[in-house]
Specification:
Strand content: 15-25%
Low-confidence stretches: 286-291
Order of helices and strands: EEEHEEEHHHHEEEEHHHHH
Shape: globular
CATH architecture of the largest domain: Alpha-Beta Complex
CATH topology of the largest domain: Aminoglycoside 3'-phosphotransferase, Chain: A, domain 2
Helix content: 40-55%
Number of helices: 10
Mean pLDDT: 94
Length: about 290
Amino acid sequence: MRTIDLNKWRKVGEGGNSTVYECPAEPDAVLKVNSSRINTLPKIEHEYNVSKDVKEMGLPTAGMKEIVEVGDNRYGIVQEKIRSKKSLSRICHDDPSRIEEMARVLCEEGKKLFGTPCPTDRFPSRKEQLLGVVDEARFLTRKEREMVRGFAYSIPECDYCIHGDFQSGNLVSSEGKYYWIDLDRFAHGDPLFDLGHLYFICHIVSPMKRVQDIFHLTEEQLHQFWHAFATAYTGKEDHSSLDAKAGKFALLDMVVRINFQRPNFLENLFYRLQARKIIKAYFPASSQRLP
């Protein structure tokens, strides 16, 4: 495994869980380094292999070059450079008049992704991942975990591709084409898992400054993005039915995250507050089942 000196690389981007670097000596590549809590060799190998498999399926994404060590038992992935790329989030930030346009782009590209049959022998089932960690969701009460488990069993198994971190920062534009990035959570399952993740960002945690900073959008703009996305997805100005389903899947999204990032004590407290908000809004006491 090659060892890279990060002092020779320049930081060019940063997200919620990773930092991206460029180096003049390697003009056709970028280096992605995950944050310390998820920077283990097994996790890096997983992301590398999944991303290669997605590329081999013909879906638009960057090619993987190699796994490298960046010092102190930290690792990174050298990837093909997507030239002149800009995420949909950054496009919206730079020109807010394009928020609705970019939301429609995410909808169109998302439907292409969801319409692609996923090789179930190469990618995990999101439903099985959910069921495998329900009991570890300590931010839920025992009754709430039972509710989530019952909800999960009612979801049909699907072989549709889903991104896992479906949001405006993970679709980038380059020379008129669009590419998916950050594919470590790629799986097969109901597309509502992805829509629930987007809804969680745009509505549940959108008041948080950290979320606004990550996506370069205000709370109002995140709401606007979801409205335009949901309108395009449903073909209806009134998308309240989709909102209700996405709100329920937002709770599942919180549980599924345990597969990728174990919440610490403070995060469990935060998740508890968000879970209570979602349950109150989308799981009324009179009905604990998926419609």
